[in-house]
Amino acid sequence: MVLEGGEGTGKTTQADRLAKRLSETGRRVRVVREPGGDPFAEAGRELLLGPIPRTPEAEVLAFNAMRAQLLVAVVRPLLAGGTWVIADRGRLSTLAYQGHGRGVDLEWARSVCDVTVSLCPPDLEVVLAVDPAVSAARRSARGVTDRFEAADDHFHQRVNEGFATEAARAGVAIVDGTDAPSTVTERLWHTLTPRLG
Ligand code: Z5A
User: Fold this and answer.
1) With bands split at pLDDT 50, 70 and 90, how would you rate the model's confidence at 61?
2) What is the DSSP string of the chain?
């Protein structure tokens, strides 16, 4: 399962809560994050979230390189061993941030992401969405920490609209993340239920 959405929508909080709930049913579960997940991809994360200037096209390829590393080196072996994997971000983040946010040609970005994700396609993707004012309040409570969080409100607006557009295009469910964490977990659990067997 991949949890997607803009900053402060609660992806990390919900990934941990879902992992706990799934493990209470006797399943082995691992949460991974993008970019990151193993030493190579964590080194790439530092570069990607850091301040060194780069083109958005290079960003698409670099996020996808880190994704390929995570999928092949970490996620595939976990799934093969029977562990459930919850990923904090995935391909829709590239389309929302680099495509809609930074203006990369969307057809090109989609084709790059499709090639990468074909290495290990997810069973389920869900976008968490909150009102922009809620997201801004959660972000400012935490302070600016990376180049994406530091971008202006127009960028975040394009990114949020990008998630909505790409979710609709790909038939991905959008779950409201505004309410209390336990309520949001219930909503997400509902999307998972058909896969629990
Ligand atoms: N990026 C990209 O550009 N292209 C790509 O292809 C990929 C990524 C894969 C990764 O950042 C950055 O990389 C990201 C996009 C870019 N840009 N940024 N920034 P990250 O992984 O470090 O950060 P993040 O994914 O944005 O995490 P986040 O800002 O922490 O958001 P979150 O995981 O959705 O939220 P959270 O950590 O669970 O919660 C945030 C705060 O809100 C925290 O204080 C919680 O206690 C609080 N919270 C959470 N849920 C609730 C509810 N329901 N009520 C009240 N308060 C809540």
Assistant:
1) very high
2) -EEE-STTSSHHHHHHHHHHHHHHTT--EEEEESS-SSHHHHHHHHHHHSS----HHHHHHHHHHHHHHHIIIIIHHHHHTT-EEEEE--HHHHIIIIIIIT---HHHHHHHHHHHHTTS--S-EEEEE--HHHHHHHHHHH---STTTTS-HHHHHHHHHHHHHHHHHHT-EEEE--S-HHHHHHHHHHHHGGG--
Confidence of residue 144 (pLDDT cuts 50, 70, 90): low
- Mean pLDDT score of the chain, rounded to an integer? 95
Q: What is the pLDDT of residue 195?
A: 85
- Name the closest-CA residue to atom 3, ligand 1: 97
Q: List, in sequence order, every residue forming a beta bridge with 88; answer none if it has no partner.
A: 3, 33
- 126-131: average pLDDT: 96
In angstroms, the Cα distances linking 189 to 3, 35, 130, 175 are 12, 25, 18, 11
Q: For 87-96, how does the pLDDT look when each residue is reduced to its tens digit (9 = 90+)?
A: 999 999 999 9
Structure tokens at 85: 């994997």
Cα 170 to middle of ligand 1, angstroms = 22
Distance 164 CA to ligand 1 centre (A): 17
Q: What pTM value is reported for the model? A: 0.97
